[in-house]
Amino acid sequence: MGMSPHAGHNEPSGTSPRAVQTGVTPVTEDGSRDAKPPPSFLCENLEPESHLERLLLEARRCRICAAHLPLPPRPILRATASARLLIVGQAPGRRVHETGIPWNDPSGDRLRAWLGLTKEVFYNEARIAIIPTGLCYPGKGDRGDLPPRSECAPTWHPRLREALRHLELILLVGAHAQAYYLGNARKRTLAETVRNYREYLPGMVPLPHPSPRNQQWFKLNPWLEAEVLPEVRKLVWRLLGL
Ligand code: SF4
């Protein structure tokens, strides 16, 4: 059995989305629910697209955990209501934070190669939404970037997912996305979870994080390239009509 990418990271402590209701109030640092949710710009009668646009605006203005971030918050996410595929990664790295473009780094290059997608298709928001587990750069630790802030996913993912009404497939890229979305449905290791990806269909597909830091893991688990990625590519291409 291969080692798990990001095995040294703490897993997000947010509630599994299976238990999270939409409109969830933010989780404070001590794990309790804040009685006062942040001001919302949402209006119940908005059309789906403008509902999502306002929610994106609200998310982009989020400052909930600003005191714990090394740089001013810069939530990086993109979506339109027509998207059928959602990519959930870890959290922006420094380069992504600076450019504001998700997956604009070697990890993104590998992910696009895995999926057989050009940048043009990958960044077409009408088809693909990109929302990481943590929306802002969390800073660096001893072993690479810190985990996504635990407040983030429970605050934003349920509401954003509800607004993405045409979603058919979510790619869970890396251990943090899988911890949040799969919870106890994960296997003992990330390798086992990914290798059994069919169990999470039709709605979700777990993948390892494509970071260059995981090069050794890729070598130890050649079945990923040989068995899993060709099938995932077919799923994604079919969904996107390629
Ligand atoms: S990481 Fe998430 S919760 Fe924290 S400020 Fe950014 S968007 Fe808000």
Can you offer a commentary on this structure?
The chain is of the alpha/beta class. It has a single domain (48-240), classed as Uracil-DNA Glycosylase, subunit E. It has nine helices and six strands; from the N terminus they run H-E-H-H-H-E-E-E-H-E-H-H-E-H-H. The strands form two sheets. It has a four-stranded parallel sheet with strand order 2-1-5-6. A two-stranded antiparallel sheet has the order 3-4. A hairpin with a 2-residue loop joins strand 3 (140-141) and strand 4 (144-145). The chain is globular and about 45 Å long. It starts with 47 loop residues before the first helix and ends with a helix. Residues 1-43 have low confidence and may be disordered. Iron/sulfur cluster binds at residues 62-66, 73, 75, 134-136, 149, 151-152, 155. Iron/sulfur cluster (SF4) binds next to helix 5.
> What ranges have pLDDT less than 50 throughout 5 or more consecutive residues?
1-43
- The oligomeric status of these chains comes to single chain
Q: Return the domain count.
A: 1
Supply Rg. Answer: 17 Å
CATH homologous superfamily title = Uracil-DNA glycosylase-like domain
The helix/strand series, from N terminus to C terminus, equals: HEHHHEEEHEHHEHH
Any ligands, ions or cofactors bound here, and which? iron/sulfur cluster
Major beta sheet, strand line-up: 2-1-5-6
Class from secondary-structure proportions: alpha/beta
Q: What would CATH call the class?
A: Alpha Beta
Q: What is the 3D form? A: globular
Strand fraction equals 5-15%
